[in-house]
Specification:
By secondary structure, this protein is mostly helical. It is built from eight helices and no strands. It has one domain: N-utilizing Substance Protein B Homolog, Chain A, CATH 1.10.940.10. The two termini are 22 Å apart.
Length: 142
């Protein structure tokens, strides 16, 4: 399983949790079993990301709100775009994944799962998040 597929699996778990408004480790375990995901790296990444997004949800949502246009509210964002942004902002903030990789992967997920405007919206928010701390993200450009 390549990293893009692993990230997409994490997105799917996060989306299910967003719809249920709850994080349960059992949900992740069930997803992994149902999808026959056996690789340790894949399991660890999916579990780390889902736990991390849940634990840091408030901070992540604040970052999203910060870069919305004044007339936009979180409730207006589609659940798909919201989950993609949560996943990407978690990676940008709490992992060593290069920001170009994070943004590219998020845009690709938004093209696959979102509507016609999703990729532009997701790219814009994430570019703003990266731009808020350029020195940190420049070193994250490996």
């Amino acid at each position: 399983m390549n990293m893009s597929a692993i990230r997409e699996s994490a997105f799917q778990v996060l989306f299910a949790q967003e719809m249920q408004k709850d994080f349960l480790e059992e949900q992740v375990d069930l997803y992994l079993a149902e999808n026959k995901i056996q690789e340790i790296d894949a399991k660890n990444y999916i579990m780390d990301v889902t736990k991390g997004v849940s634990k840091n949800n408030s901070e992540i949502l604040e970052k999203i709100k910060k870069y919305l246009k004044p007339e936009w509210k979180l409730e207006r964002i589609s659940k798909i775009n919201l989950v993609i942004l949560k996943l990407a902002i978690y990676e940008l903030t709490y992992t060593e994944t290069p920001f170009k990789v994070v943004i590219n992967e998020a845009v690709e997920l938004s093209k696959k799962y979102g509507d016609d405007t999703s990729s532009v919206f997701v790219n814009g928010i994430l570019a703003s998040v990266v731009g808020e701390n350029p020195d940190e993200n420049r070193t994250n450009n490996s």
